[in-house]
Amino acid sequence: MRIALSQINSHLGDFETNSKKILEQIQSAKDRHCDLVVFPECALMGYHPVDLLEQPYVVEAQLKALKKIETSIPDGITALVGIIAINPNKVGKPFLNSAILISKNKPSKLFSKQLLPTYDVFDEGRHIEPGETAKNFFKFKGQNVLVTICEDIWAWPQRGGHRYQTYGKNPLTQIPKSKVDLVLNLSASPYIPKKQKERQLVVKQTATHFNAPMVYVNMVGAQDELIYDGGSFAVDSKGKILAQACHFEEDLAILDLEKNEGSKKPLVTHEMESIRQAAVLGLKDFVSKSGFEKVHLGLSGGIDSALVACLAVDALGPQNVKAFLLPGPYTSPLSNQLAQKLCENLGIESHSLSINTGFEVLAEELNEKLGPLEFGLTHENLQARIRGNFLMAISNLKGSLLLGTSNKSELAVGYSTLYGDLCAGLLPIGDLLKTQVFELAKHYNSEHELIPLEIITRPPTAELRENQKDEDSLPPYDQLDPVVYKIVEKVKTPKSDLEKRIYNMMMKSEFKRWQAAPILKLSSHAFGRGRRLPITGAYIYP
Amino acid sequence: MRIALSQINSHLGDFETNSKKILEQIQSAKDRHCDLVVFPECALMGYHPVDLLEQPYVVEAQLKALKKIETSIPDGITALVGIIAINPNKVGKPFLNSAILISKNKPSKLFSKQLLPTYDVFDEGRHIEPGETAKNFFKFKGQNVLVTICEDIWAWPQRGGHRYQTYGKNPLTQIPKSKVDLVLNLSASPYIPKKQKERQLVVKQTATHFNAPMVYVNMVGAQDELIYDGGSFAVDSKGKILAQACHFEEDLAILDLEKNEGSKKPLVTHEMESIRQAAVLGLKDFVSKSGFEKVHLGLSGGIDSALVACLAVDALGPQNVKAFLLPGPYTSPLSNQLAQKLCENLGIESHSLSINTGFEVLAEELNEKLGPLEFGLTHENLQARIRGNFLMAISNLKGSLLLGTSNKSELAVGYSTLYGDLCAGLLPIGDLLKTQVFELAKHYNSEHELIPLEIITRPPTAELRENQKDEDSLPPYDQLDPVVYKIVEKVKTPKSDLEKRIYNMMMKSEFKRWQAAPILKLSSHAFGRGRRLPITGAYIYP
């Protein structure tokens, strides 16, 4: 039996694109003499639809596209495609997260997911009714094939799902071991550094449990905040990898079960390089899937905007990235020089707009009507907001998407101006701590000095007042970042005074994050839709 | 047996305030010779905590406050208090949504919620493990008392939960009818117009099913987007109302079961008046619970900002509301006059800041560096954003919360400027359609002309270009609003060309709503956290 692992990039809700892609991959798999081609979870719908499912005609439109695949599938090949199905029972949630087995002139067969993640970024409990893994069998070339969907294989003790979900029942241990000749898994598993190792562990555990080979097909591509990194693979009954698809790109890997071998692509193992590729994919897909071609950003001469510019150029090419220098009364000449030098290095167009006169005029109007005012936070924020006005005006003028440059450390403690530097269509590095921003910038410079060195070595500053440094308002980043990591990713109780101070800063700035643009998820717990905290009534330490 | 229905306003995560309030109410109930006092769902924690529960020390702190209630409760009275409990089992979600029965020197007893809403604004499936209603009994004064929590009584056919959740099992029909002498329900049920009627129906259905009296205690107060309207009540075994607490305020209603009578307050039955009181409560609690005293807003001379000003004055008093007129190049003299007149009628302070010079300067900088530019959308948005700059500067200067004036119709079709008129700490009328805005404004004028009549009768305009009217860009509101209602609240498939046009406008403006401030929920389906749609990949009609 030859199996194709079809690692596609689905576009949520775009059924024409998705069904065309699926039919093309089926044909490719057939051309390569495969008997079966396996697609990711929700391959036809795209993941994750959340409340798009509440519009009943969306699922109807998907099922219409499915009909077309069913009638167009060529002879001699069988496809297993992730879809959203309608729950045939009148009770419970209206949909099923399913895989459908399709072949020419045969009735299709449906298998549904049992374990529904409802934590972090996942909301499957909102619309999906659980299936029953023990029923998910089909006979193929004399083999008993078990179909599982994503979470269904993650209930092994020690790695049972998420930290806030320990599954009572492992659907796999309720199946007689001898009944299984081959296990398939369809996934839409978002990128987290080191996640591939965990996937290898659960797949190995499943394969060895059943003493059967296993195929794991993951989605690739990005949708809003989530980046699917692909990395689909197949193992033998001992857990040894037989076939391996690449990371971060569409692929069609082949497994030959008789020969016990398959096609193999290298994985991205360097962590910073994997973060870079994830962010680039996330940025590229966000821009193109929301109908944009071009992006722009404000370049301050600091490290955050420099890094976002590098990622944008990687994702979209220098011709689609424009930089804007927005000098104000406290911008040092060095900042402009460094920003300018970076644009030259990246080969991107840049323009400079001054906020000086605008700032003077608006501050004077405030002073005259509400003053006299001393220079303070109001004036700092006003500068950031005038920059926001210019950058959004450029969006309007050029039909270009504005990239924000906030990082996770700033977002955590609210060191950012709402409607100022938080203006953005997307926050590509909003899930990278400042120390990771430095690391990734250095990674960019590992071969030659792409980012002018002084951008990396100068002390971080917002340049919104005389001689301002980030450390005037914040703990140094090498103290701040481990605490943010501990509180957000590890969800540990703050103990020391420093930890409590940072925790309280986090809670008090929840209102800014509520209104933040989508944040590309690059860690195990990002700010954004996967973290839902109240504004009124956060628990504050005394 | 005398029972007190303690309808309190809990402050999420503020355990000192909540436990003090609970002990005071226990004492009041005792003073009024009650045997039992029943509190709302999550009375001690506050509702709804969502991911605040992920911080384990938050539940610990709540349990510490609970200990204090257990040791301080006076003799001779028993209290049933809604709390978040720790799931004693090692599997499943870590918490239970529970009621705890407390009396002096007796071990407390725990009862847990079985049906966990995970739809719309509710996320209970994220952290809560279901309990078992059939086990939720205690013996009190010789009576078998059944404890239910909120959703547990909503699984009757025909009104089973939410439109996206039909419960397979009704936990109540699995209990022998004869086993029940009295039913208690602890709720945190958010306001929706006409919701009280539905509550009366399910409570009557439950009481008559068991042929037993029933007590329903609802939360009052607001938290972020949700407004709890109270309206707690008790019925006899036929469903006749014996006791009734008020709407929108804390209360302690008394039921005397032997005498078959109780205290009764009138309910708010006029729909516009109930919407007004709900919005006022939502606004007041959002402001105070997030630590503010004062609010301000931009007054345009249009109906939306006029209505928000009225609500703010009702919620906080005229001394805590400041209005800012922000005339620009296209503001008519009439707009300023009407805004001024409204401030006089409301007795609020007003200031005027001109955006003219700021607009000229910023537009000229854009023109010089990126132009020559013709007047267009860029200039319209720029005016709105300079207004946003001023209003946020005032937040910084005065420590006052900015109220936004966007309504649901505008939010639906994206007729608003991101970082411009969308600047806000809260959107108090973001869940009212424009036609409801008119109705509520007229309701304000029902006794005397509080809102200058011309504000209500003039055609809506954003005044961002010469002779602009909303109807230049949008369908007339009397056509737009029924379609928005149909698509958002009724989730119906768009059929006509007009419906498809509006649906597509809605989908394409998802990115603006992603970044919108919290919206007070005043309908069965609001924009905000209860509606989770993707930005990349919304399904668009061809």
Explain the overall architecture.
The structure is a homodimer of 542-residue chains. Helix content of chain A is 35%, strand content 17%. With 542 residues, chain A is of the alpha/beta class. Chain A has two domains: 2-268, Carbon-nitrogen hydrolase (Nitrilase/N-carbamoyl-D-aminoacid amidohydrolase); 290-514, Rossmann fold, CATH 3.40.50.620. A seven-stranded mixed β-sheet of chain A has the order 5-4-3-2-1-14-15, covered by helices on one side. Chain A has a six-stranded mixed β-sheet with strand order 6-7-8-9-12-13, with helices on one face. In chain A, strand 16, helix 5 and strand 17 (321-325) form a beta-alpha-beta unit. The longest helix of chain A has 22 residues, at 377-398. The mean pLDDT of chain A is 95. At the A-B interface, helix 2, helix 4, helix 7 and helix 8 of A face helix 2, helix 4, helix 7 and helix 8 of B.
Characterize the largest beta sheet of chain A: strand count, sense, and whether it forms a barrel.
Answer: 7 strands, mixed
Instruction: Report the radius of gyration of chain A as a whole number of Å.
Output: 25 Å
Strand order, largest beta sheet of chain A: 5-4-3-2-1-14-15
Q: In terms of per-residue confidence, which ranges of chain A show pLDDT below 50 for 5 or more consecutive residues?
A: none
Question: In the CATH classification, which architecture of the largest domain in chain A applies?
Answer: 4-Layer Sandwich
CATH class identity of the largest domain in chain A? Alpha Beta
Largest interface (CB within 8 Å) is between:
A-B, 91 and 91 residues
Shape of chain A: elongated
Instruction: State the CATH superfamily name of the largest domain in chain A.
Output: Carbon-nitrogen hydrolase
Total of domains of chain A: 2
Distance between the termini of chain A: 65 Å
- The residue-averaged pLDDT of chain A reads 95
The total strand number of chain A stands at: 19
Number of H- or I-type helical stretches of chain A: 15
Say what oligomer this is. homodimer
Strand content of chain A: 15-25%
Class derived from helix and strand content of chain A? alpha/beta
